[in-house]
Please model this.
Amino acid sequence: MKVTLFSDGSSRGNPGPGGFGTILQYTDGKGVLHEREYSGGEADTTNNRMELMGVITGLEALTKPCEVTVISDSKYVIDAFNQHWIEGWIMKGWKRGKDPVKNVDLWKRLLDAAKPHKITWQWVKGHAGHPENERCDALATQAADSYL
Model:
């Protein structure tokens, strides 16, 4: 099955209250588009952690191996895979130069969630009128605001 996963993260302060929004879309055998929305957040987090949680939540919601296109405005998430940063971090024991990689717990969780799937990582410009990205942003900011 082919699935499109849209995701966005938000925080009110960095760190501060944060949230994520995720949309999963797939078309069934009859050509009908199905869509599920997810959101959540934390009282004290960062934008990057919420960007990761959005993708993790979407991948963990999938119950069987899929071809997934992940679409996000987070260069942090997308470039980690498309620029092969994550491979270097793993080879260097989760280090960037001499410094530890931030959010290792979530990167490992994301890698586990990604294992069963064939994933294409696609960046989209945020706040540029992309309907699903705008919806994910609204879900994320609503979740973040629930902690204010």
Observations:
- The first helix runs from residue 47 to 61.
